[in-house]
Specification:
- This protein has seven helices and eight strands.
- The protein is an alpha+beta fold.
- Strand 1 and strand 2 form a beta hairpin.
């Protein structure tokens, strides 16, 4: 198996291909009920089992060849956002075609609870959305989350996502968002706090 390749980076984090060394931290992340409580796309495969986590990584690495330019990638970041902190696996982010919606591409992520509230989800989404719009030239990107996942919904809306409806996705009720290229590009350089406040104050806020 080839060594994991770095896909893109920012001053705060790195996004790279998953490798077999990620199997244990992936398993540990999914052993935390806070991570799995609101998942809508686990496909009934418990990744808190090391064998399943290893098989998942093998499957993901096959996807790199099947869908060039897309994937499910590891997110690495310093523990406290400081250069002196050790770089470590923080979860994963995905940009993949959606099977039941031809032409659509979905962004998704799962991050360790230790990162929650520190803005890592916002930074990871901004980095991957920018890649999708700038490099892949996508006109829009979709996102799905559990309707009860307020943090995910706010993150979608902070990046200019528009809520469409709550409907079944992979057999689970999910909030369906569309993130358009022009709206994202118009606000991409605004600070996270400004984007979060704008999402909270939006008259069409979905929750």
């Amino acid at each position: 198996m080839n060594a994991p390749r770095t896909v893109f980076t920012s001053p705060r984090l790195s996004v790279r291909e998953l490798g077999l060394d990620d199997a244990e931290p992936l398993r540990a992340m999914h052993a935390d009920r806070r991570v799995t409580a609101l998942l809508i796309d686990d496909a009934g495969v418990p990744l808190d089992d090391l064998a399943n986590a290893t098989a998942f990584i093998h499957a993901v690495r096959r996807l790199y060849r099947q869908y060039e330019g897309y994937g499910i990638w590891a997110v690495e970041s310093s523990a406290g956002g400081n250069a002196s902190d050790a770089i470590a696996f923080r979860g994963f982010v995905a940009l993949m075609p959606v099977g039941e919606l031809p032409g659509d591409v979905e962004i998704g992520m799962r991050l360790m609870p230790s990162t929650w509230g520190a803005g890592l989800a916002f930074d990871a989404a901004r980095l991957v959305l920018g890649y999708g719009f700038d490099v892949l030239g996508l006109p829009q990107i979709v996102a799905f989350c559990d309707p009860a996942n307020r943090a995910a919904r706010l993150n979608n809306e902070a990046h200019g996502g528009s809520w469409l409806h709550d409907a079944l996705h992979d057999g689970r009720l999910a909030s369906h968002y569309v993130l358009g290229r022009e709206r994202f590009l118009a606000t991409r350089h605004e600070p996270r706090g400004q984007r979060m406040r704008a999402a909270f104050r939006a008259p069409d806020r979905s929750f």
